[in-house]
Fold:
Amino acid sequence: MEHVKDFFADERDEGNHAVGTSIQRADALGHVTGQTRFYADRHFPGTLTLKMVRSPHHHARIVRVDTSAAEEMAGVVKVLTHANVPNNIYTILRLIQVEPNDEPVLAVDKVRYRGEPIVAVLADSEAIAREAADAVTIDYEELPAVFDVEEALEPGAPLVNEFHGHNYFTYEGHHCRRVRHGNVEAGFAEADHVIEERYQSSPIEHAPVETTGCIVVPEADGRLTCYSNTQALFFTLDNAGLILDVPFQRLRLIGGTVGGGFGGKVDVVTEPIAFLAADLTKRPIKYSYSREEEMQVSSPRAAERLYIKDAVMNDGRIVARQIRLYVDAGAYSRHSPYGTTKAAAHMPGPYTIPNVTVDAHCVYTNRTPSSAMRGFGVTIGDFALEVQMDKLARLVGKDPMELRIVNAYRDGHIKAHGEETHGAALVEVIQAASKFAAWPIDESQWSASSGTGG
Structure:
C-alpha cells in the first residue's frame, strides 16, 4: 500500500500509523482458540426458556387471547401478556427525545406486522415452551395492510400506527425532514439539461451467525443481571428500567461480545421482557431468537425509495438538485426517524450545488420494523447519488471522475444544510484513485484541490 504523505501534511498527526499496517484485535486470540464467552455460553441452574407467541398476520385486531391451555401444561411456570408489563408502550430513542412512544413490548389490541410478539411463555425447557406457545389461542380480525411507502401516504390508506395518527413521523410540525438551500426552480429554468431518476432498495437482513438473545439472572441482593449480545448496553439498560418502572441501578448488563451485529443488535427487544420474566419468577430466563425469528422479526436495514431530479450545465456543473426520499420504517419508529434525518443531512452528497431541496419521509407500513445497519440513512442514498452522477456524466459527455471533481465541495463551501465545509479531501481521493487505477482524467483536473479556492 502506498502512503500518500503530501496531502494535508500540516493537518495530520504523524503519530498515527494504523493505516496500511496489521494490528492484532484484542479479542482475536480468544476467538481462534475458542475461549471467547458469548452470552449463550453461560449456564445457570433452574433456567427457564422464554418463547413468544407471534402474530401470523401483517395487520389485525386482537379479539381474544386464551392462555389457559398453556398455563395448565406441566413444566409451564408463567405466561405473560401486556397486562404484566408495567409500562408497555415505549420507543427506543425517547432517551434522546425522539418521541412519541409508539411500540408495545407485547401487543395489546392490535398487531401491526407479521411476527409481532403477543404472549410470552416461560417453561422448564425449550420443547415445553414451544408446545405451550402453540397451545395459546388468539382470535383475530384481519385488517387491510399497506406495504408501499407512497401508498401509505395516500389519503384513505390503512392507518398503521395510531400513536402517530398518520403514517409518517412528524419533524418539528412537518410531515418530513426538510432541507432548503437556494432556489431549485430557478436552477431548473437555467439548466441545459434536466434529468429525474428513481432508485429503490429492499430491506436487508443482517443475518448474524449468532442470533439475538440474552440471559437474565436474579441476584441475591435483588438486582437483575443480564448477559446480552446487544450493541447498545446503555440504551438497553435505561429503556428496560423505564419499561419495568424500576431504578436503573437495580439492573445490570454484561455484554461486549457480539457474534455478528452490524447494527442489527442495537434494538431493545429481548432484554426488557426477559428482565421482567426473571423478576416475576425469581429464576434465570433465557430468551434467544431462532434462526426463523432472526430472519422474520429482527430489524433489517430500511428499504428506501429516492427520486433525484438534477439540473446540469453542458460543462458538467450541477446547478440544482431536488430529492424526494422515502424510508420504510415498518410498523414502529425504532431508529428510523434518526436514520431519515441522517439521510436528509447527507444530501445532496459531497458536492457543492447552489440550489437544493430535500424532502425525506419516515413512513410507517405493515412491514417488520427497520432499524440500524452499517451507515444506515447514508448507504442507500450514496448508491443512488453516485449512480446519478454517472448518468449525468453520460448525459453531458463528460468523464465521470472529472464530473465529480468539478462538483466536489471544497473547504469553505456551504453545504445544503448550512454548515461550512472543513477538511474536504474528495478531489485528492479521486485523483489518487484515478492514478492507481490508471484512469485517464484530463490534465486540467490534476491541478484541482479541495482547499479553499481549489
User: Anything to note?
Assistant: The chain has a mean pLDDT of 95.
